[in-house]
Specification:
Helix content of chain A: 40-55%
Mean pLDDT of chain A: 90
Shape of chain B: rod-shaped
Shape of chain A: elongated
Number of helices of chain B: 2
Number of strands of chain A: 11
Structural class of chain A: alpha+beta
Order of helices and strands of chain A: HEEEEEEEEEEEHHHHH
Helix content of chain B: over 70%
Distance between the termini of chain A: 24 Å
Order of helices and strands of chain B: HH
Strand order of the largest sheet of chain A: 2-10-9-4-5
Number of domains of chain A: 2
Low-confidence stretches of chain A: none
Radius of gyration of chain A: 27 Å
Largest sheet of chain B: none
Number of strands of chain B: 0
Oligomer: heterodimer
Number of helices of chain A: 6
């Protein structure tokens, strides 16, 4: 067994184990009640996720905007997961809207901070007057004492899919690139072995792409509400895979192996070139549910927490190596049947 | 084709188990669902996933060996 095959296996095993076992950070999963009348006291019951409220001084704020936040009169820690916050919502609000959405922010020295956007809606607010109750600064730091993956609202534990769904796509890109490379090599040297490798890598790439789309659909069902939302990224990914499926249909439609190799090599090159606009350019031009849209690249520094990178990059490398191994086996099998 | 079905199955099981964990953790009592309470269950899930993955790796490894043997024979016969 070549070393790189073993390395691929180990990297994927690592991503499976570390990706699933590292706990998430603290989050907020329940706030009751969600509405309050301005000018009345408000008793909020808050339930956290993976929180340790008993540890140290737990602080809370209801934030209106960057300059205005309410501090609670009292914070009662019931246990590590449950808090009771006694607020008084002033009648006067900093803005002109009579209905306002306030974000709940919690801070604990061990957990770091957690946010629930639009946790409480206040109704019947008036503008102007004494807004001194709103002049509190939200003092939070990002630091928490334990190693954890980020807790994101809506995603929750499904954030771990980042280690399985995304590396498949990245590996697919590399595998298709290698396939195109062999196609180019075939057109130059006319060695049938090159064409066999091109086909083998294309089939593995298609496999990873299908798995990527299916895992994406399962994830989407949980977070977006439907398996298929006709989201631009989903549509473009489906089109890309159909183009590659057509590559195989082209091969089988042509009469002899040499013609099939020549035509499909040219098709393969165009198919790969099309992946760039389909998967990377068009989705970024429009608003999309999928991360990496509306002008933002999907893996800017904000999108991937540094703790997640520790598992994510090895997973990508592992899947690329696995893809190469599977493709190599297919290519060798094809050679044996010549 | 069989390998393809295996891989599909493996991923549906993985995703299903992840969703199951998420569902199970949300259907919990007032003291809050969380990872720490279900940490015993997550080890089982990880063990299952690792076993499935290693099973597939073993399949690939044996396939690799078989192909190598046939290739060696072909080269010898040449």
């Amino acid at each position: 067994m070549k070393w790189w095959k073993v390395l691929g296996i180990l990297l994927i095993l690592y991503s499976l184990i570390a990706g699933m076992l590292v706990p998430l950070g603290a989050g907020i999963i329940r706030v009751e009640p969600r509405r309050a009348a301005a000018g009345t006291p408000l008793v909020l019951e808050v339930t956290g996720y993976n929180s340790t409220y008993r540890n140290g001084d737990t602080k809370a704020w209801l934030k209106y905007d960057d300059q205005h936040a309410l501090s609670p009169r009292r914070v009662t820690v019931q246990n590590d997961r449950d808090l009771r916050l006694d607020f008084v919502i002033p009648k006067q609000h900093p803005g002109r809207d009579s209905v306002n959405a306030l974000n709940l922010i919690l801070f604990n020295p061990r957990d770091g901070y957690s946010v629930l956007p639009s946790a409480v809606f206040t109704v019947g607010a008036t503008f102007g007057g004494d807004i001194s109750p709103w002049l509190n600064s939200v003092e939070v730091t990002d630091a928490s004492t334990r190693f954890h993956f980020p807790y994101r609202n809506i995603l929750g534990e499904t954030i771990r899919n980042t280690y399985y769904h995304v590396p498949l796509w990245m590996a697919m890109m590399v595998i298709f690139a290698i396939s195109m490379w062999y196609s180019v090599g075939f057109l130059r040297r006319r060695d049938p072995a090159d064409d066999q490798r091109a086909e083998a890598f294309a089939s593995t790439g298609l496999l990873f792409g299908i798995l990527g789309i299916v895992t994406g659909m399962v994830w989407a069902k949980n977070t977006w509400g439907a398996y298929w939302s006709f989201d631009v990224k989903q549509n473009m990914a489906a089109i890309a895979l159909l183009i590659y499926a057509a590559y195989f249909m082209l091969r089988s439609a042509l009469p002899d192996r040499d013609t099939a190799a020549r035509f499909s090599s040219v098709y393969n090159i165009f198919a790969f070139i099309l992946l760039i606009p389909l998967l990377y350019i068009i989705p970024r031009m429009t608003a999309s549910l999928h991360p990496g849209s509306g002008g933002n690249p999907a893996f800017a520094s904000d999108d991937l927490d540094s703790t997640m990178r520790m598992v994510f990059y090895p997973a990508v490398a592992g899947w690329i190596l696995m893809g190469c191994w599977i493709s190599q086996l297919r290519a060798r099998t094809k050679r044996l049947y010549e | 084709m069989k390998k393809f079905n295996f891989l599909i199955q493996k991923y549906s099981v993985t995703s299903f188990l992840i969703l199951l964990c998420l569902q199970a953790s949300q259907a919990s009592t007032a003291s809050g669902p969380d990872f720490m309470q279900s940490i015993g269950k997550i080890y089982v899930v990880v063990a299952v996933i690792v076993i499935i993955f290693l099973g597939l790796v073993l399949y690939l490894y044996r396939l690799d060996r078989r192909i190598s043997r046939i290739e060696k024979r072909k080269r010898y016969e040449k």
